[in-house]
């Protein structure tokens, strides 16, 4: 796949893909005789995972670290696992907090619903 197709399928811009390759988040691409980047299908799964790491708030330095460890192979499995576990634990705390906030909002909305119904009369 050429870089434009990867950008279209992944949702990352061509500029971002080039930047990610420059800083080591993407492995160096193969180049065709014209010097154009060419990627295999595995890059899409990797980009999806990188997007999820970004969405959970992992800073780019830690995403680069994870990519470097991944490139080093099986000897880094424990380090990769520990890095992901740290962010997983932080995410679980945020999810619990957001769930509590959602419950508070639901209760507040339900309270307003009971106050509004008498003002508008019974449904017809």
CATH-defined fold name:
Multidrug-efflux Transporter Regulator, Chain: A, Domain 2
From the helix content, strand content and strand pairing, which structural class follows? mainly alpha
Query: What is the CATH C-level name?
Result: Mainly Alpha
Helix content class: over 70%
Which of globular, elongated, flat, extended, rod-shaped describes the shape?
elongated
Count of strand segments? 2
Tell me the Rg in angstroms.
Answer: 23 Å
Terminal-residue CA separation? 59 Å
What is the ordering of alpha helices and beta strands? HHEEHHH
Note poorly predicted spans: none
Contiguous helical run count: 5
Beta fraction: under 5%
Mean pLDDT: 93
- In what order do the strands lie side by side in the largest sheet? 1-2
Number of domain modules = 1
Level-2 CATH architecture = Orthogonal Bundle
**Biggest β-sheet, characterized?**
2 strands, antiparallel
Describe this structure in words.
- With 124 residues, the protein is mainly alpha-helical.
- The protein has one domain: Multidrug-efflux Transporter Regulator, Chain: A, Domain 2 (Orthogonal Bundle), CATH 1.10.1660.10.
- 72% of the residues lie in helices and 3% in strands.
- It contains 5 helices and 2 strands.
- It has helices spanning 3-10, 14-23, 42-55, 60-72, 77-120, and strands at 30-31, 37-38.
- The protein has a two-stranded antiparallel sheet.
- Helix 4 crosses helix 5 (77-120).
- The longest helix is centred in the C-terminal third of the chain and has 44 residues, at 77-120.
- It starts with a helix and ends with a helix.
- The mean pLDDT is 93.
């Amino acid at each position: 796949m050429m870089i434009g197709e990867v950008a279209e399928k992944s949702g990352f811009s061509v500029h971002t893909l080039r930047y990610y390759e420059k800083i080591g988040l993407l492995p160096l691409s193969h180049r065709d005789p014209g010097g154009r980047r060419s990627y295999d299908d595995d890059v899409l799964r990797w980009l999806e995972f990188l997007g999820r790491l970004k969405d959970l708030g992992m800073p780019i330095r830690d995403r680069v670290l994870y990519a470097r460890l991944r490139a080093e192979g099986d000897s880094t499995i424990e380090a990769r696992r520990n890095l992901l576990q740290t962010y997983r634990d932080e995410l679980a705390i945020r999810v619990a907090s957001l769930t509590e906030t959602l419950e508070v909002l639901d209760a507040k909305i339900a309270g307003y619903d009971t106050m509004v119904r008498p003002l508008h009369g019974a449904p017809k």
